[in-house]
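Before a colleague's protein record goes any further, I have to sign it off. What it holds is a sequence and that sequence's fold in token form. My question to you is simply how this chain folds and whether the tokens agree. Thanks in advance; the entry in question is below:
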Amino acid sequence: MAAIRIEVLTPDTASQACRVLAQAFVTNPLNMAAFGRSQLARNEAFFHIGLAVMKGPKLVATDGRRVLGLVHWVHSPECQFSTLEKFRMAPTMMKAVGLRSALRVASWQSVWSKHDPIAPHAHLGPLGVSPDAQRQRIGHRLMEHYCDALDRVGHAGYLETDRPENVGLTPSIAPSEATGSVSLRSTARPPDSAIRTVTCASNGRLLAGVVSSLMGNFALPAASVFGRSSSS
């Protein structure tokens, strides 16, 4: 097996990285709800647009022949797009994935942005590894770079995911407790979807994850907070 290297994403590796992310995320609940099942092309287009405008470090794992994984993070407040940036992205997103999917992406991102921490933090994501390269500790190595960045600045880490099992991303970063929940009331289905905030501690670092079970309709006119996250 070729040695795995961690490198900075370049224009030459961007297309491969987007394909890897599409393959890694295509079965995630939110991606299926936004783009439909098995929609690799739409997911790939989504990541092409997203990676092009995301600020912050973007690293890829490569074996010298192809990209096997990617990690991105950005320090607050640059993790949130401005209204102008969103306006500029909208036509490109609609052309790439269609109007319905673009509206669902906008609603999904709007809901998550409302729960972005006020305190300084480093927002993680996307993080993905090619399905045929998993279980080789590639994700672990990518996460090490992110955790090193947290240590250098002393910020909290923040993760948003629609899979509870993703909160414990490495053996050294395991969920410690659920600290709050947010009910997302939808006009088209019972209010049983929820976002659950989970905190994870590792060597003094705090990783807060938002675990979302948003499936189906993205018309979410109200959010009621039933718990409050806390850190020590």
